[in-house]
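Subject: Sanity check before I submit

Could someone independently write out the C-alpha coordinates for this chain? I want to compare against mine line by line before I put it in a report. The sequence has 370 residues.
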Amino acid sequence: MVDLMGQYSKIKDQIDKNIINTINSGKLINGPIVKEFSQNLSKFLDVNYVIPCANGTDALQIAFMALELQPGDEVICPAWTYVATAEAAAILGLIPVMCDVDSDTFNITADLIEPLITKKTKAIVPVHLYGQSCDMEPIKNLGKKYDLKIIEDNAQAIGCKYTFNNGKTISTGTIGDIGTTSFYPSKNLGAYGDGGAIFTNNEKLAEKIFLAANHGQNKRYHHKIIGCNSRLDSIQAEILNIKLKYLSEYNSNREEMAKNYNMAFKNIEYLQTPKVIKNSTHVYHQYTLKILNNKRDQLKEYLSENGIPSMIYYPIPLYKQLAFKKYVSDDFYLPNTENLAKSVISLPIHSEIENSNQDYIIEKILNFYK
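---
Independent answer below. Compare away.
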Protein backbone atom coordinates (compact mmCIF):
# COMPACT_ATOMS: atom_id res chain seq x y z
CA MET A 1 0.00 0.00 0.00
CA VAL A 2 2.98 2.33 0.61
CA ASP A 3 6.66 2.17 -0.37
CA LEU A 4 8.50 3.15 2.80
CA MET A 5 11.80 1.62 1.70
CA GLY A 6 11.71 3.35 -1.67
CA GLN A 7 11.14 6.65 0.08
CA TYR A 8 13.92 5.93 2.59
CA SER A 9 16.44 5.04 -0.12
CA LYS A 10 16.26 8.57 -1.56
CA ILE A 11 17.07 10.27 1.74
CA LYS A 12 19.07 7.46 3.36
CA ASP A 13 22.34 9.38 3.70
CA GLN A 14 20.66 12.32 5.44
CA ILE A 15 18.58 10.09 7.70
CA ASP A 16 21.46 7.81 8.73
CA LYS A 17 23.83 10.70 9.41
CA ASN A 18 21.35 12.61 11.56
CA ILE A 19 20.29 9.53 13.55
CA ILE A 20 23.94 8.71 14.35
CA ASN A 21 24.62 12.33 15.33
CA THR A 22 21.64 12.30 17.70
CA ILE A 23 22.72 9.02 19.30
CA ASN A 24 26.23 10.39 19.77
CA SER A 25 24.84 13.55 21.33
CA GLY A 26 23.12 11.57 24.07
CA LYS A 27 20.14 13.98 23.89
CA LEU A 28 17.56 11.34 23.11
CA ILE A 29 14.48 12.80 24.82
CA ASN A 30 13.38 16.40 24.21
CA GLY A 31 16.69 17.18 22.53
CA PRO A 32 17.24 20.39 20.51
CA ILE A 33 16.03 18.67 17.34
CA VAL A 34 12.53 18.25 18.82
CA LYS A 35 12.26 22.01 19.24
CA GLU A 36 13.69 22.59 15.76
CA PHE A 37 11.20 20.22 14.18
CA SER A 38 8.35 21.88 16.10
CA GLN A 39 9.38 25.27 14.79
CA ASN A 40 9.70 24.03 11.21
CA LEU A 41 6.32 22.31 11.32
CA SER A 42 4.81 25.47 12.81
CA LYS A 43 6.10 27.44 9.80
CA PHE A 44 4.88 24.81 7.34
CA LEU A 45 1.35 24.88 8.80
CA ASP A 46 1.39 28.61 9.64
CA VAL A 47 0.25 27.91 13.16
CA ASN A 48 1.54 29.56 16.33
CA TYR A 49 2.21 26.48 18.45
CA VAL A 50 3.19 22.87 17.70
CA ILE A 51 3.62 20.54 20.67
CA PRO A 52 4.98 17.09 19.70
CA CYS A 53 3.90 13.98 21.57
CA ALA A 54 4.27 10.20 21.45
CA ASN A 55 1.49 9.29 19.01
CA GLY A 56 -1.73 10.47 17.41
CA THR A 57 -4.01 8.87 20.00
CA ASP A 58 -2.17 10.66 22.80
CA ALA A 59 -2.52 13.87 20.79
CA LEU A 60 -6.30 13.56 20.88
CA GLN A 61 -6.39 12.65 24.56
CA ILE A 62 -4.12 15.58 25.45
CA ALA A 63 -6.34 17.92 23.42
CA PHE A 64 -9.38 16.85 25.46
CA MET A 65 -7.39 17.25 28.68
CA ALA A 66 -6.23 20.74 27.71
CA LEU A 67 -9.83 21.80 27.08
CA GLU A 68 -10.69 20.54 30.59
CA LEU A 69 -13.57 18.40 29.37
CA GLN A 70 -15.18 16.45 32.19
CA PRO A 71 -16.48 12.86 32.47
CA GLY A 72 -19.98 12.72 31.03
CA ASP A 73 -19.40 15.54 28.56
CA GLU A 74 -20.43 14.63 25.03
CA VAL A 75 -18.14 14.98 22.04
CA ILE A 76 -19.48 14.46 18.53
CA CYS A 77 -17.24 12.40 16.25
CA PRO A 78 -17.70 10.41 13.05
CA ALA A 79 -18.66 6.76 13.27
CA TRP A 80 -16.65 6.28 10.08
CA THR A 81 -13.05 6.69 11.24
CA TYR A 82 -10.22 4.88 12.98
CA VAL A 83 -10.96 3.86 16.55
CA ALA A 84 -8.50 6.37 18.10
CA THR A 85 -10.84 9.32 17.58
CA ALA A 86 -13.58 7.96 19.83
CA GLU A 87 -11.25 5.90 22.01
CA ALA A 88 -9.31 8.96 23.20
CA ALA A 89 -12.56 10.51 24.38
CA ALA A 90 -13.82 7.36 26.09
CA ILE A 91 -10.54 6.90 27.98
CA LEU A 92 -11.27 10.18 29.80
CA GLY A 93 -14.87 9.29 30.57
CA LEU A 94 -16.25 11.50 27.81
CA ILE A 95 -19.19 10.28 25.75
CA PRO A 96 -18.39 9.80 22.04
CA VAL A 97 -21.56 10.62 20.12
CA MET A 98 -21.48 8.81 16.79
CA CYS A 99 -22.25 10.93 13.76
CA ASP A 100 -22.99 9.69 10.24
CA VAL A 101 -20.84 10.94 7.36
CA ASP A 102 -21.47 12.25 3.88
CA SER A 103 -21.71 9.28 1.53
CA ASP A 104 -19.51 10.88 -1.14
CA THR A 105 -16.77 12.69 0.82
CA PHE A 106 -16.73 10.25 3.81
CA ASN A 107 -16.57 13.22 6.22
CA ILE A 108 -18.96 14.59 8.82
CA THR A 109 -20.88 17.74 7.88
CA ALA A 110 -22.61 20.50 9.82
CA ASP A 111 -26.05 19.24 8.68
CA LEU A 112 -25.34 15.82 10.16
CA ILE A 113 -23.77 17.20 13.34
CA GLU A 114 -26.37 19.77 14.42
CA PRO A 115 -29.23 17.35 15.25
CA LEU A 116 -26.91 15.54 17.67
CA ILE A 117 -26.09 18.61 19.78
CA THR A 118 -27.50 18.55 23.32
CA LYS A 119 -26.92 20.49 26.54
CA LYS A 120 -24.16 17.98 27.33
CA THR A 121 -22.29 18.52 24.05
CA LYS A 122 -18.96 20.26 24.61
CA ALA A 123 -16.93 19.55 21.47
CA ILE A 124 -16.96 18.45 17.84
CA VAL A 125 -14.17 16.28 16.45
CA PRO A 126 -14.03 16.55 12.65
CA VAL A 127 -11.78 13.91 11.07
CA HIS A 128 -10.29 14.93 7.73
CA LEU A 129 -10.57 11.41 6.40
CA TYR A 130 -8.36 9.94 3.67
CA GLY A 131 -6.63 13.32 3.09
CA GLN A 132 -9.49 15.74 2.38
CA SER A 133 -10.80 18.45 4.69
CA CYS A 134 -14.26 18.39 6.17
CA ASP A 135 -16.27 21.41 5.10
CA MET A 136 -15.03 23.42 8.05
CA GLU A 137 -16.70 26.82 7.69
CA PRO A 138 -20.22 25.53 8.51
CA ILE A 139 -18.75 23.40 11.31
CA LYS A 140 -16.97 26.43 12.76
CA ASN A 141 -20.23 28.33 12.59
CA LEU A 142 -21.88 25.55 14.60
CA GLY A 143 -19.12 25.87 17.18
CA LYS A 144 -19.84 29.56 17.57
CA LYS A 145 -23.62 29.09 17.62
CA TYR A 146 -23.58 26.48 20.41
CA ASP A 147 -20.33 27.50 22.16
CA LEU A 148 -18.59 24.23 21.31
CA LYS A 149 -14.87 23.50 21.03
CA ILE A 150 -13.52 22.04 17.79
CA ILE A 151 -10.70 19.49 17.84
CA GLU A 152 -9.52 18.50 14.36
CA ASP A 153 -8.21 14.98 13.83
CA ASN A 154 -5.72 15.72 11.05
CA ALA A 155 -3.86 12.40 11.16
CA GLN A 156 -4.64 11.62 7.51
CA ALA A 157 -4.54 15.11 6.00
CA ILE A 158 -1.34 16.93 6.92
CA GLY A 159 -0.57 19.41 4.14
CA CYS A 160 -4.23 19.69 3.10
CA LYS A 161 -5.60 23.22 2.63
CA TYR A 162 -9.12 24.54 3.22
CA THR A 163 -10.41 27.79 1.69
CA PHE A 164 -13.11 29.84 3.41
CA ASN A 165 -15.75 31.75 1.49
CA ASN A 166 -13.81 34.99 2.02
CA GLY A 167 -10.88 33.49 0.10
CA LYS A 168 -8.68 32.80 3.13
CA THR A 169 -6.82 29.49 2.85
CA ILE A 170 -5.74 27.65 6.00
CA SER A 171 -4.00 24.33 6.68
CA THR A 172 -6.23 21.64 8.12
CA GLY A 173 -5.42 21.02 11.75
CA THR A 174 -5.13 24.77 12.39
CA ILE A 175 -8.77 25.76 11.81
CA GLY A 176 -10.40 24.68 15.06
CA ASP A 177 -9.39 25.33 18.67
CA ILE A 178 -6.89 22.45 18.59
CA GLY A 179 -5.60 20.17 15.85
CA THR A 180 -3.91 16.80 16.21
CA THR A 181 -1.91 14.52 13.97
CA SER A 182 -0.11 11.19 13.87
CA PHE A 183 3.33 10.43 12.47
CA TYR A 184 2.71 6.69 12.14
CA PRO A 185 5.13 5.40 9.46
CA SER A 186 2.53 5.05 6.69
CA LYS A 187 1.21 8.60 7.12
CA ASN A 188 2.02 11.27 4.52
CA LEU A 189 4.56 12.61 7.01
CA GLY A 190 5.62 9.44 8.77
CA ALA A 191 8.30 8.67 11.34
CA TYR A 192 10.13 5.34 11.65
CA GLY A 193 8.14 4.57 14.75
CA ASP A 194 5.31 6.25 16.64
CA GLY A 195 4.90 9.99 16.96
CA GLY A 196 2.28 12.72 17.04
CA ALA A 197 1.69 16.43 17.52
CA ILE A 198 -0.89 18.95 18.68
CA PHE A 199 -1.47 22.37 17.08
CA THR A 200 -3.11 25.57 18.29
CA ASN A 201 -3.02 29.31 17.80
CA ASN A 202 -4.15 29.95 21.37
CA GLU A 203 -1.31 30.70 23.79
CA LYS A 204 -3.21 29.62 26.92
CA LEU A 205 -4.25 26.35 25.29
CA ALA A 206 -0.68 25.76 24.12
CA GLU A 207 0.53 26.05 27.71
CA LYS A 208 -2.09 23.57 28.92
CA ILE A 209 -1.22 21.16 26.11
CA PHE A 210 2.46 21.35 26.96
CA LEU A 211 1.72 20.74 30.64
CA ALA A 212 -0.65 17.85 29.91
CA ALA A 213 1.95 16.10 27.75
CA ASN A 214 4.77 16.56 30.27
CA HIS A 215 3.54 15.25 33.62
CA GLY A 216 1.83 18.60 34.28
CA GLN A 217 5.15 20.35 34.71
CA ASN A 218 6.75 23.35 33.01
CA LYS A 219 9.66 23.27 35.43
CA ARG A 220 11.31 20.09 36.65
CA TYR A 221 9.57 18.70 39.75
CA HIS A 222 6.96 21.49 39.71
CA HIS A 223 3.64 19.88 38.70
CA LYS A 224 0.82 22.36 38.06
CA ILE A 225 -1.79 19.88 36.79
CA ILE A 226 -2.30 16.14 36.45
CA GLY A 227 -0.76 15.26 33.11
CA CYS A 228 0.68 12.29 31.30
CA ASN A 229 4.00 11.31 29.76
CA SER A 230 3.83 11.68 25.99
CA ARG A 231 6.98 12.82 24.20
CA LEU A 232 8.41 12.64 20.70
CA ASP A 233 11.90 11.21 20.95
CA SER A 234 14.85 12.95 19.30
CA ILE A 235 15.54 10.21 16.74
CA GLN A 236 11.99 10.42 15.37
CA ALA A 237 12.25 14.23 15.35
CA GLU A 238 15.42 13.96 13.23
CA ILE A 239 13.61 11.75 10.72
CA LEU A 240 10.52 13.95 10.59
CA ASN A 241 12.54 17.13 10.28
CA ILE A 242 14.19 15.78 7.13
CA LYS A 243 11.00 14.35 5.64
CA LEU A 244 9.11 17.60 6.29
CA LYS A 245 11.28 19.22 3.58
CA TYR A 246 9.83 16.76 1.07
CA LEU A 247 6.23 16.67 2.29
CA SER A 248 4.87 18.95 -0.43
CA GLU A 249 6.59 16.77 -3.05
CA TYR A 250 5.25 13.60 -1.42
CA ASN A 251 1.71 14.98 -1.44
CA SER A 252 2.07 16.15 -5.04
CA ASN A 253 3.12 12.66 -6.11
CA ARG A 254 0.12 11.15 -4.31
CA GLU A 255 -2.14 13.61 -6.12
CA GLU A 256 -0.57 12.62 -9.45
CA MET A 257 -1.29 8.96 -8.76
CA ALA A 258 -4.87 9.87 -7.86
CA LYS A 259 -5.29 11.75 -11.14
CA ASN A 260 -4.04 8.68 -13.02
CA TYR A 261 -6.58 6.48 -11.25
CA ASN A 262 -9.38 8.99 -11.81
CA MET A 263 -8.68 9.22 -15.52
CA ALA A 264 -8.51 5.45 -15.90
CA PHE A 265 -11.73 4.75 -14.00
CA LYS A 266 -13.90 7.69 -15.08
CA ASN A 267 -16.00 5.66 -17.50
CA ILE A 268 -16.52 2.59 -15.30
CA GLU A 269 -20.15 2.63 -14.26
CA TYR A 270 -19.66 0.70 -11.05
CA LEU A 271 -16.70 2.67 -9.66
CA GLN A 272 -17.10 6.01 -7.88
CA THR A 273 -13.79 7.85 -7.66
CA PRO A 274 -13.09 10.17 -4.70
CA LYS A 275 -15.27 13.28 -4.53
CA VAL A 276 -13.39 16.46 -3.58
CA ILE A 277 -15.27 19.46 -2.16
CA LYS A 278 -14.57 22.81 -3.80
CA ASN A 279 -13.14 24.31 -0.59
CA SER A 280 -10.48 21.63 -0.05
CA THR A 281 -7.37 20.20 -1.57
CA HIS A 282 -6.76 16.46 -1.19
CA VAL A 283 -3.44 14.91 -0.12
CA TYR A 284 -4.67 11.34 -0.71
CA HIS A 285 -3.47 9.56 2.38
CA GLN A 286 -5.76 6.91 0.94
CA TYR A 287 -7.24 6.56 -2.54
CA THR A 288 -10.66 5.16 -1.77
CA LEU A 289 -13.21 3.96 -4.31
CA LYS A 290 -16.88 3.20 -3.78
CA ILE A 291 -17.98 0.01 -5.48
CA LEU A 292 -21.58 0.47 -6.65
CA ASN A 293 -22.53 -3.04 -7.75
CA ASN A 294 -22.09 -4.95 -4.47
CA LYS A 295 -18.94 -6.67 -5.77
CA ARG A 296 -16.40 -5.01 -3.48
CA ASP A 297 -15.32 -8.25 -1.86
CA GLN A 298 -14.98 -9.99 -5.23
CA LEU A 299 -12.79 -7.13 -6.47
CA LYS A 300 -10.61 -7.34 -3.38
CA GLU A 301 -10.16 -11.09 -3.82
CA TYR A 302 -9.36 -10.61 -7.52
CA LEU A 303 -6.73 -7.96 -6.71
CA SER A 304 -5.15 -10.25 -4.15
CA GLU A 305 -5.00 -13.10 -6.68
CA ASN A 306 -3.10 -10.75 -8.98
CA GLY A 307 -0.61 -9.66 -6.33
CA ILE A 308 -2.19 -6.24 -5.75
CA PRO A 309 -2.67 -5.10 -2.14
CA SER A 310 -5.85 -3.28 -1.14
CA MET A 311 -7.47 -2.33 2.14
CA ILE A 312 -10.93 -1.69 3.52
CA TYR A 313 -10.93 1.38 5.78
CA TYR A 314 -13.09 0.57 7.78
CA PRO A 315 -14.97 -2.75 7.69
CA ILE A 316 -16.89 -2.26 10.96
CA PRO A 317 -18.52 1.03 12.08
CA LEU A 318 -17.33 2.23 15.49
CA TYR A 319 -20.75 1.79 17.08
CA LYS A 320 -20.74 -1.89 16.13
CA GLN A 321 -17.48 -2.48 17.98
CA LEU A 322 -17.91 -4.21 21.33
CA ALA A 323 -15.93 -1.46 23.05
CA PHE A 324 -18.54 1.18 22.10
CA LYS A 325 -21.76 -0.81 22.49
CA LYS A 326 -22.61 0.96 25.75
CA TYR A 327 -22.83 4.32 23.99
CA VAL A 328 -25.59 3.33 21.56
CA SER A 329 -28.89 1.44 21.54
CA ASP A 330 -29.11 -2.07 20.12
CA ASP A 331 -30.88 -0.82 17.01
CA PHE A 332 -28.58 2.17 16.39
CA TYR A 333 -28.06 2.60 12.67
CA LEU A 334 -26.33 5.18 10.47
CA PRO A 335 -27.21 4.56 6.82
CA ASN A 336 -24.24 6.14 5.08
CA THR A 337 -21.75 4.58 7.47
CA GLU A 338 -23.33 1.14 7.02
CA ASN A 339 -23.26 1.49 3.24
CA LEU A 340 -19.63 2.60 3.16
CA ALA A 341 -18.55 -0.35 5.30
CA LYS A 342 -19.88 -2.61 2.54
CA SER A 343 -18.73 -0.66 -0.50
CA VAL A 344 -15.34 1.07 -0.12
CA ILE A 345 -11.90 -0.18 -1.06
CA SER A 346 -8.56 1.63 -0.99
CA LEU A 347 -5.87 1.11 -3.63
CA PRO A 348 -2.10 1.55 -3.26
CA ILE A 349 -1.07 5.21 -3.32
CA HIS A 350 2.19 6.72 -2.16
CA SER A 351 5.01 9.12 -2.90
CA GLU A 352 7.19 6.78 -4.97
CA ILE A 353 5.28 6.79 -8.26
CA GLU A 354 8.06 5.05 -10.17
CA ASN A 355 7.78 2.06 -7.83
CA SER A 356 3.99 1.99 -7.73
CA ASN A 357 3.23 -0.47 -10.57
CA GLN A 358 0.22 1.74 -11.12
CA ASP A 359 -0.20 0.82 -14.79
CA TYR A 360 -0.45 -2.84 -13.81
CA ILE A 361 -3.01 -2.07 -11.09
CA ILE A 362 -5.14 -0.05 -13.50
CA GLU A 363 -4.91 -2.71 -16.20
CA LYS A 364 -6.12 -5.44 -13.86
CA ILE A 365 -9.03 -3.38 -12.56
CA LEU A 366 -10.12 -2.48 -16.08
CA ASN A 367 -10.01 -6.16 -16.96
CA PHE A 368 -12.18 -6.96 -13.95
CA TYR A 369 -14.91 -4.66 -15.29
CA LYS A 370 -14.79 -5.79 -18.94
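---
OP: Matches mine. For the report I'm noting this point. The chain has a mean pLDDT of 97.
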